[in-house]
Amino acid sequence: MPETFLGDLSQVKLFDILSPLFSSKKTGKILVRGKEDGELYLELGNITHAKTSNAVGEYAFFTLMGLRFGKASFEPDEMALERTISASTEQLVLDWSFKKQEWDKVREIIPSLNTIFHLSVQKGPENKNVNAEQWNVLALCNGTKTVSEIAQTLNWDVFKTSKAIFQLVQSGLLERGEDRKPIKKKLVSEKFFPILETEMKKIMGPMALIIINDKLSQLGVTRDSLAQDEALSFVEALSEEISHDLKKKEFLGAMTDFLLGGKK
Predict the structure, then answer these.
(1) What is the DSSP letter of 263?
(2) For residue 211, with 0-12 CB atoms within 10 Å meaning exposed, 13-18 middle and 19 or more buried, which class applies?
């Protein structure tokens, strides 16, 4: 089924977008696209799975709830292949309301799970009250492990890990290093958009350029930032604008041949 645009997060909070879906017991996938991409899955109005580019479960949910920019859309009847959230949606939202202010402060110190911390060169733990759990974190903050890797090593959720690191930074025992840079995505080839425009114009005429640009905007990407591994899903999203089944099939066939043919 085609996506339904739900709203722009610069104008409306994600919670306000989700509330009607909760109350009407919808099943499907909420897509959030922007600087931070993510997905939320609902089953009869209950959140069963959440993920972002570098987190799953409650942490991903909290991250998405805190976004102030991006566009949200809904794909009805899409079911999650895994369940990463066991708490009820009511409890999850309640937890978010309690943690929001605290989480905003933590995010200022730890903007990404790829952030790295190391022991402060100015202060040592000998004159500080450090509990056993904090010692575990200190031992792993060696200037090479990311927040995500520390959480995995300790078998903690990332909120607990981030909170412990935040407290140690506040007490002067840890300092923030550089974020580990993610692997740079390979962008689509120079021929992708000219070929895409040609195929769309065959069907949509002069409206093709407007439709392509609107879809890019909805996805929170540009012609200069669309990655190769995002191209096929972008083409599929565009095809939903084509109402004629045969023409849609021809469009998808032409673009799939181009993408899978390894053309440069």
Answers:
(1) -
(2) middle
Q: Using DSSP, how many helices (H) and how many strands (E) does the chain show? A: 10, 9
Q: pTM surpassing 0.85?
A: no
Query: Is residue 161 a contact partner of residue 152, using CB atoms and an 8 Å limit?
Result: no
- Furthest CA-CA distance within the chain: 74
Class level of CATH domain 110-176? mainly alpha
Q: Which amino acid is at 93?
A: V
- Over its length of 264 residues, how does the chain's per-residue pLDDT go in tens digits? 577 889 888 888 888 899 999 999 999 999 998 767 899 999 999 999 999 877 788 878 888 887 878 889 999 999 998 999 988 888 888 888 777 777 778 878 888 778 899 988 765 555 567 888 999 999 999 888 998 889 889 988 777 888 899 999 988 899 988 766 555 678 899 999 999 999 999 998 888 888 898 888 766 678 888 888 889 888 988 898 898 889 999 999 999 899 887 544
Nearby residues of 81 by Cβ (< 8 Å), 6 or more positions away? none
